[in-house]
Amino acid sequence: MALMERFDHFMARANAAYYAAQDPFEDFTTAPELTQVFGEILGAWAKTVWQMMGAPDDIILAEAGPGRGTLMADALRLWPREQVHLIELSGRLRAEQASRVPNAIWHESLDTLPEGPLILLANEFLDALPVRQFIRRETGWRELHVENGAYVELPADIELPDDPVGSVREINEAAEEFCEKLAAREAVALFLDYGPLQSAPGSSVQAIRDGAYADPLRDPGQADLTAHVDFAAIAARVNVQGPVKQNAFLTGLGLFQRSDFLARKFPDKAQNFALAAQRLTAPEAMGSLFKAVALCPKHLPRLPGFEI
Fold first, then answer.
1. pTM summary value
2. 3-class DSSP state of 134
């Protein structure tokens, strides 16, 4: 008998299989892989935030979804730490991370991070967490399930807005739970991810396979499944600064100044630094689609990049 499961359960299972066996960087390129400047200015950002927190000696620096370890390795160039913590499930990716961040300690979840003040970095992490999907029909809201590679609609068990018939709503309970756990401790977390500034109905789930868009329901574990982050839903649950567009955030942190400095230092790579900075900030590329949001205690002043 075929398994029928809620879409978020399907998405979680598919992504776990994908990251365990596939190389995601054959399908897409993330900001840290474009230029070392991205991780470096986030390292400088984290150091500044640590100072704003009172420079506690027991500060914990962590990253969720660290990919190949490139971001953390670059961040440590600007803020060297004896030890860092990486939240990563994939054994294959952990091996890659170990080659770049040999002083890392790995965790399967946020729950096992040491107690104490925390600064957490996360780039394109929330978008991979599973979402529940709902569609509005004449008879009310229905929740999408998956069976035999096709959607199945069952009555929804939660209250949703009175949207027009045919509207789709997505709820990322995993992202909300992750942020609520962070808010329960002395933590500052920086998320860079893609999604709208304001909540809105619509289906945003997409699958990338072999560098191209694919059917999200086909061959689970062979494609990377993501969904737009609902920053407003997170802000309704925890204290945040932002979201702001990635181009404004990175420009405010000195992306172009750092890129120009490295271009002068390494003239043979000058064009690469310039092109990467343009791709990260151009509105038609990653500059507007991606947003930055910081989860932080209410007593902290405006953090770097969120002054606007």
1. 0.95
2. strand
